[in-house]
Amino acid sequence: MSTPLPSQELGAFLRAHRELLQPSDVGLTANSRRRTPGLRREEVASLSGVGLAWYTWLEQGRVTASRQVLEAVARALRLDPAGLRHAMRLAGHHEPTGPLDLNGSGDLASTVQPVLDSWPTSPAVLLDRHFDLLGWNTAWSALWGAPEVVPADRRNLMWLMVAGRQLRTVLHDWEPLAMNVFQHFRAQAGTSLSDPRTGEVYRHLDEDAPQLRHWWGCHSVAELTTRTVVVEPPGIGRIQLALSSFHPVDDPSALVLLFTPRTAEDHSRMTALTDRPLRAVTGLPERHAG
C-alpha cells in the first residue's frame, strides 16, 4: 500500500472536515433533498471565494494552495488553530505568519503572562516569530533591564543582545549566546525574509551595531540550544542560569525563554536581585536613551 502524498493528505483532511459540517453551521439553509453528507464542494468554494473546479482539484490533491487561500478555506470549514496548522504543514507552509487564532481565542501575551509570572526568580520572556518581546516577568526586568523603556520598534531580543547595554553588562561571554540567538532567528525567518518586520529588525541591527555587520550577512543557521548562562549583576555576585525554551501550544511560531537558577545559591542570589527596587535601567545606547 503506497503512502499518500502530502497534497492527497491535505485533500482528504479538507474533505473530512467538509463532511462534518452542516449547512446551519455556516449560516446556510439545508435543502430537504440534500443527499451529500455535510457541505457540498460548491458551498465551501463559495464561502472561501474560490472557484468550484479549483476547490475540487484541491481536495483531489491536484493543485497547491497559497497561505492566504488556505486560510480562507480553513475559515469556511471552521478549522480550529490546530487544524489550520496541520493544513498549512500539509500544504508545505511550515512557518505560520503569526498566531493562528481563527476563533478569537484571545491574545497570546495575556494567556502566557501568568505562566511567566509563576517563575518569580527565573527570568522568562515571551517572543513572537520576529523575536520581539511580547511579555516578560519581574525577574527578567531585574536582571536584563525593563523592556518597557526600550522603544517598541527595538524591543527585540537580538537588538537587546547586541545593541543594548544592560544585557551585555551582566552577561558573561555574551557573543556565543548572541550568535546562537541570531542563527535561530535566521532559521525561523528563512521563509519570510521579505516580511516587513523582519526587514525592519535587520535595519535596526545594521544601524545600531554596525561593528557586527558581518553577522547580518552570514547565512549560518542553528537551533537555540539548552546551555548554562553565567551572569553577574552588580552587588549580587555570580549566578548560573540554565537556559531552556519551548513553544506555546497556541502559537508554535512564538517562543518562551526561561533562565532557571541552577543551584540553591543561584536561587538565593536571584531572590536578592528580584527583591531589590527595580532601577530605571534602559540598557539603551546613548542615541536611543531617553
UniProtKB/TrEMBL annotation:
Gene3D superfamilies: 3.30.450.180, lambda repressor-like DNA-binding domains. The lineage of its organism: Bacteria, Bacillati, Actinomycetota, Actinomycetes, Kitasatosporales. This is Helix-turn-helix transcriptional regulator. Pfam families: HTH_31 (PF13560), MLTR_LBD (PF17765). Residues 13-84 form the HTH cro/C1-type domain. CDD domains: HTH_XRE. InterPro entries: Cro/C1-type_HTH, Lambda_DNA-bd_dom_sf, MLTR_LBD.
